[in-house]
Specification:
Layout (H helix, E strand, L loop, with lengths): L1 E2 L6 E2 L33 E4 L2 E4 L2 E2 H4 L5 H10 L5 H13 L5 H8 L7 H15 L5 H4 L9 H27 L12 H9 L11 H14 L6 H10 L5 H12 L6 H13 L5 H9 L20 H9 L2 H5 L2 H13 L3 H4 L7 H11 L1
Antiparallel strand pairs: 1-2, 3-4, 4-5
């Protein structure tokens, strides 16, 4: 039973596999559909107040217990993998971690100070140009993905690998250092760090501490319901476009200041403040509505984000790094005040987990 608090109307909606179909909510919508997407079940994850479920597992059962590869497998295919299935998944992912020359050229020609999002979009577009057989219109088969589960599975893996390579190439290009080839037998996250050149000087290998941190952090970010960027991807997918083209739209959407771009704006504000001593002035201006505190509040979680407690704990593991990082120190001071000030607490304005996650990245 669903009760529309705006009209007090009652609706009986069928529940299948612990979720409801988005189409069934069409009877309820009376305004902007994007204002009501927070309760749409997608069959992968169910949101309860203060909880996240991946398939039939509460996030508390998965976090710190299962690595990224296994939880990704769970979300894609509905079950935690056996050892053989996990190794097969890993090898399939790693097989796609060699960038085509077209992609390398497309990224290398861009200015090193170009925005990250622009470089990522260019890299993804170059992938579609390097292998257009995945594009239905080019292949002459508009329904090539419909009902073809083998191709869909291949495309999911191909898309994950492609995103990893493009992000690694972007990181390398911005820092003017060489891309490092992946190891076909190493875990996916370790390979991502290797490709980026994010390694220790003494071993030329990724830090086990960094691997463990990302392995936990990425589990928390694996699926997050109907965000704006997810909706953008699904809108494009509804035209029967290929997965990489859909991801280009997703990345463009995430760049908006009311979505992922809010994190960039938050960090720009930290830079403008310069020191912790400037934080009270910022808080005062926020209360006077002279400025906005980006990175606070969340479209889906209006009370508590169940991911935040884990990311806070991760951040505590980098206490020494936090003390030595000016931007991170400013961010933590803003969060300290906002977490106790009545203006913010009465409005349930808390730093969302995406901003907390960026604090972890900064500490790394």
């Amino acid at each position: 039973m669903v009760i529309d608090s705006r009209t007090e109307r009652r609706y009986q909606l069928p529940i299948t596999d612990n979720s409801i179909q988005a189409i069934d909510l069409g009877r309820i919508f009376t305004g902007d559909e994007f204002d009501l997407t927070n309760r749409i079940g997608n069959g992968l994850k169910v949101l309860d107040p203060g909880e996240i479920h991946y398939r039939d597992y509460n996030i508390d059962q998965l976090y710190g217990q299962y690595p990224f590869e296994e939880v990704a497998y769970l979300l894609i295919w509905g079950n935690l993998p056996s050892h053989e299935e996990k190794i097969g998944f890993r090898k399939a992912l790693n097989a796609g971690l060699s960038p085509p020359e077209t992609v390398l050229n497309a990224i290398n020609v861009l200015p090193r100070d170009a925005p990250n999002v622009s470089i990522v979009i260019a890299g993804l577009a170059a992938y579609t140009a390097a292998n257009p057989t995945f594009i239905p219109t080019v292949a002459g088969n508009p329904h090539m993905y419909q009902g073809n589960m083998k191709l869909i599975d291949q495309s999911i893996i191909h898309t994950l690998s492609t995103m990893a390579v493009v992000i690694a190439l972007t990181y390398c290009h911005k820092r003017n250092h060489a891309f490092t080839s992946a190891d076909p037998n190493k875990p996916f996250i370790e390979n991502v760090l290797t490709m980026m050149g994010f390694v220790e000087e003494t071993t030329s290998l990724p830090s086990p501490r960094v691997i463990m941190t990302l392995d936990r952090l990425w589990v928390l970010y694996l699926d997050h319901e109907m965000t704006n960027s997810t909706a953008a991807l699904l809108h494009i997918a509804s035209t029967l476009a290929d997965p990489i083209s859909c991801c280009i739209g997703l990345v463009a959407s995430a760049n908006g200041p009311l979505h992922g771009g809010a994190i960039d704006l938050a960090y720009k504000k930290f830079e403008q403040l310069g020191t912790r001593a400037s934080v009270p002035k910022l808080i005062k201006e926020v209360k006077q509505k002279k400025t906005r505190l980006f990175g606070y509040g969340h479209r889906i979680y209006k009370t508590v984000d169940p991911r935040a407690k884990y990311i806070r704990a991760m951040l505590n593991e980098f206490e020494e790094e936090s003390r030595n990082n000016t931007l991170l120190g400013i961010a933590i001071e803003i969060d300290r005040i906002a977490s106790t000030d009545q203006y913010f607490t009465s409005r349930n304005l808390k730093a969302n987990a995406d901003l907390y996650g960026c604090f972890v990245y900064t500490a790394l």
